[in-house]
Structure formats: structure tokens, C-alpha cells
Amino acid sequence: MSTTFRLAARNTTRRKARTFFTAGMVVFGVGVLLVSLTFVRGMFGTMLRSIISIGGHVRVVDADFAAREALNPLEENVAVIAPVVELLRRQPGVRAVEPRIMAGVTVTKGEEIGDYFALAVGAHERYFREQLGAREKLVQGAWFGDGPDDLLVGARLAQRMDVRVGDELVLLGTTQDGSLSPVKGTVVGIVQTGGGQLDHQVWMPLEKLQWMTDIPEGATELLVFGEGLSEGLALAQRLSGLPELKAYAVQAWNEREPLKSMSGMVAGMQGIIVFTFVFLTALGIWNTMTMSVLERTHEIGVLRAMGMTRKTVVGLFVGEGLAIALGGGLLGVLLGLGPAWLLDHKGIRLGERLSESVSAPVPETIRGDLNLEVVLLSFGLGLLMALLGSLLPALRAASIQPVSAMRSGR
Amino acid sequence: MKRLMAIWVGLGALGAFAAELPTAEELLDKMDQNMTFESRRSRTVMTVEGRRTRTFEMVGYGRGQDDAAIEYIAPARDKGTRMLKLGDQLWIYLPGVDRVQKISGHMLRQGMMGSDVSYEDMMASNDLRSRYVAQVVGEEKLDGRPAWKLELKAKDDTVSYPRRVTWIDQETFIPVKQELYALSGMLLKVWTMSEVKEFPGGRKFPTKMVIQDQIKKESVTRLEFKELQFGVELEKEIFALRWLERR
């Protein structure tokens, strides 16, 4: 085996130009794969963290609310939240439980009735501070005080409406029954989270939105925060088993939109990227290795006549491919690490328009996720490219008949 | 010869039936005599039954076909809410924030106070003849009472309900039942009227109405006129925007 590999390694030096060309393809394939996987994983990870900080690891809602969520059916609410919140807080693994109401409103500043539509979010101050980390993202004014009429406005909405701290806003929404229902409040601060959708919202104490929607003791969602992603899934399973929650929909983070569709989409994206680069590079390797087999037909014939088995011939060519991929892969990783590191540390700025157009709360700057797993995966895929690319030519070489090969004179 | 006789008799019978049917215009005229007015004052209780049952009480004023005003007097949450319809414009005064909001665009399709009656329904003119082509399609019994069945098709697509089927009571000429359809043919609402009372001048008017939005399956809205006066003197100020904010 070691002789075969030594022979294979030595063969890589026989046609240096071809070896460099093959290795170049592996360098390119592995490098691009490393950068692409760093970006895709980073993008998904950013979205995942962002979505979970907004919507919790597990969410408890009315079953009909879950079924018609796109319509934001306020009437499908948890009418009395206190006992359910108490029950959830007692469960092991539950770090926090936050009731929340979200409702579409028309926002008016001053006397003129405005045409600005926004999402009003009502929750305890703690939710905005601890889960969204929004206190650190305050760009003007102050955080929620004790005032029941305090409003925090997203930076984008504030900019569009020319809202300043101290302005009075009228929000016109509906009750859970569909009656027009207005609330008035004073802007105490403006927050800039970097998430397009969050920066178009108006935040207020839960009690205020409970009044507007006429859900006096309830909320539309109960957000449960656990300790981590996998623990979140186990927590959802445990909570689903509670008899008191049978009437509700208990959803883990991966069962809710947009994450439900996103995980499939991300897996698909990764699959397409991997397939494209593995296929293209393997094609290149196949091409050069086939040329190598054709050039060495006579030599293969001699080796076969001297007693080299078909298996060894296959090993010889696959070994040659792997030897090239080993060097090319290492170089590809080294070259890819630079841009991947930049993606991980600096990120790519999507811009306001793009982050607003995505239904998930995507921050304007997407950072990559460079880790050992991505590096090893890219390197491993480099070896796979070589294996796939050299296997067919190797099989072809193994099928050569010694006598006819020696007669061919090549 | 026998065949000729049969055709003759058949045609005669058909002619006799056609002669008995009143024209749609005649029926709509008689209906209008009851349903339209110069002025009206009312106190109405509106019960919206659905997931929750809510009861509203309101005082209403009407002037001709185009102008109407409503003030909610109960429940406490909505007390003081006023609506004013002048021609094809509608405003609502929201006392909680002391604001007047014009209802337009998509808001017109929302249920008034979450009921099965939309703001658009409230805006719609009672003058069906100018907007629909009506045809009497037969007679049927509704709750044991004979009624003319009319089919009304919109002259253009600017109306909320391009097709209506209306049953007009043969004795009172009240539209006791109306089915309101979308352009697609989908039944949107069923509106029934009952408890017809006679008012001075011989006018007959229903004091109970039930509206069912067929899309909001579990919802029913019942309107009951507790007080109803026609031909009353109304303050002119009621039909001005200032009235909305008047304390």
C-alpha cells in the first residue's frame, strides 16, 4: 500500500504543469467552498439568533393563532395569561417567559392623520431590554420609564415620520373583535437595532396594547426562553406534554415560520454550493487524470504484465488524485481563510432595502461563521472532489489489457 | 288541431302568470316608500355575537338617502364614539384620543365596531334602481309569508355587491331577506329584516335586522330599533364635521 502511494506521489511530479493545473482547481474549489460555507452558515446563524431573541426558543399560542398566523388574528389569543405564565416559569430549563401582543396600526403624529403603517409591539419592558438587548441600541432619548404612555420608536419609522423624542403619537389599530381602537402615547426614545423590521415598530408596555386590542388579561403569544438551541427543542417537547397546555400550540423555534422554511432553504443552498463546486472541480480532475491514463497506457500495460493487480492500478491513480488534493486542499484552505476571516469579523452590509425586504428580521450586516467544522468540511470536500474525479480514469486504467496496452506503444 | 289547442292554452297560461307578476320597478317603488325617509331619529341596540358577545347602544340620525350620523352611548369603552356620513364620505370621532379619522380605502371593508355590517355597507346608498338592473324572478314563501323574489345585477363594478337577491314581502313591501354576492358569485352576506311595525303615515319599517357575514362564519349581528321616529326635525349641526367633536 505504501509503495502504491509512494508511486502515486512520485507520479505527481512527472507532469508538473498538469499537476499544478489539477491542484489549482482543488485550491479554487476548496477556497471558494470555505468562503461560501462560512457565509451561508454565518447568515443562517445570525438570523437564527436574531429570530430566537425576538420569538423565544418555544412559543405558546392559541392553536388557531398558529394556524392563521399570517393574518395576525388577535381574537385567537390566550385570554388569561397569568396562570399559564406561572406554570411555564416553574418548568425546568425555562429562563424567562414573556407575553407579547403585536398589532398593525396606523401611526399619526400631530393633527394630520398619517398614512404610516407600523407594527405595534406590546410586552414587558424586560423583554425589550433582556431578550432584544434594545437598551444598548437606544440612539435618542431615554428607556421606558414608569409612564404608561411611554413609547419607543424604531429608527427607520422615526426617520420616515420625522418623529422626535417628546412627540405625541396616535396609533389607530383594532380590538380583537375588529372595532377601531386608538391609543395615544409619548415618544421617550428611538432605538436602532439594525434589523429592518424591528426598526419599523413602535414598542409600548403590554398593558397599553392589551387595552387597544381589548385583551385585558391576555396576550396573543407567550414566548419561552430556554438555555440553547437543542435544549429549546427538548423544552418544547416537555412543555407539549403538560396537560394544562393541551389546548394550546407549543412550538419549538424550528417549527415556526420563517425558521421552518429557512432551515430547508439553507440546507438547499448549502447543497447547491457544495454540489456545484465539488462537481466542477471533480470534472477538472477527471479531465486531467483521463489524460494521464491515456498517456501512460503502455506503462500501465507493463505494470499489469509485471503482476500489478487491477486494485493496485486503481489505488495508483486515486492515490495520485488524493496526493494532489491534499496539497491543493491545504493551499485552498490557506487562501480561503483570508476572505472567510474577513466575513467572520467584518461581515457584509446588506443595506437597508434588502434587510427590509426579507420577511425574517435580518440585520443590515451579515457576518460569516468561520469555525473548525467549516475548515475541515471544505478540506474533506476537496479530497472528495479528487476521489470522484480520479475514480473513473482509475477504473479505466485498471481495465486495460496488458498485451494490447504494450502494443499501443504509448 | 289538438296540438295547436294545447299550445294556445299553454301560451295563455304563461301570459296570465306574467300578467300577475309586478314589475321590479313597481316593487322597488313600494319598498322605497317604506324604507326611505326625509329624516329619522333612532335608538338602536346592536348585538354582535361571535367568539364574544358584545352589545352596543347607539343613537342615530338620518337625513335623506345620503347623510347619517351615529353616536355610541354604550358600552363605556366606546361611549362618545361618533360617526358621520355625508354623501360618499365617512368620518369617525374617537373620544379616547380626541381625533377625527376619515374612513377610506381598505378600512371601509372592516366591520363597523367589529360587526357584520361594514363601513361600506353603511356608506351604500339605498337607491338600488340607479345602480342595479332589477328583475322579478318569481315568488316564494319566507316564514310562511309570500314574497316576491328579485334579482339585482349591478350596472357597473363600483358597487360592493355586484349581485343581490332580494325577497320583498307581498303585504308589507319590506325586503325581508337579502343575499349579497361577490363578483365571483360567492355569497358574502345575508341580511334579514323582521318585526315590521307601522308608523304614522302608513309607513312600515322593520325593527329587527340580522346580518350574517358568510366569511366570518361564527359571527351574527342583530340590530334592534328600540326607538324610531320618522319625519322629525333634526338640528342642522348634526350633519357637520364640527358635530363629531362637540362636547
Question: How does this structure look, described?
Answer:
The complex is a heterodimer of chains A (410) and B (247). With 410 residues, chain A is α+β, with helices and mostly antiparallel strands. In chain A, 53% of the residues lie in helices and 18% in strands. Chain A has helices at residues 2-11, 16-55, 63-67, 82-89, 125-131, 155-161, 206-213, 229-240, 259-295, 297-305, 310-345, 352-357, 372-398, 402-408, and strands at residues 58-62, 96-109, 116-123, 138-141, 150-154, 168-174, 180-191, 201-205, 221-225, 248-252, 348-349, 365-366. In chain A, the strands form 2 sheets. Chain A has a 6-stranded mixed beta barrel with strand order 2-3-8-5-7-6, surrounded by 4 helices. In chain A, strands 11-12 form a two-stranded antiparallel ribbon. In chain A, helix 10 (297-305) packs across helix 14. Chain A starts with a helix and ends with a helix. Chain B is of the alpha+beta class and 247 residues long. Chain B is 18% helix and 46% strand. Chain B has 5 helices and 13 strands. Chain B has a 13-stranded antiparallel β-sheet with strand order 6-5-4-3-2-1-13-12-11-10-9-8-7. At the A-B interface, strand 6 and strand 7 of A face strand 6 of B.
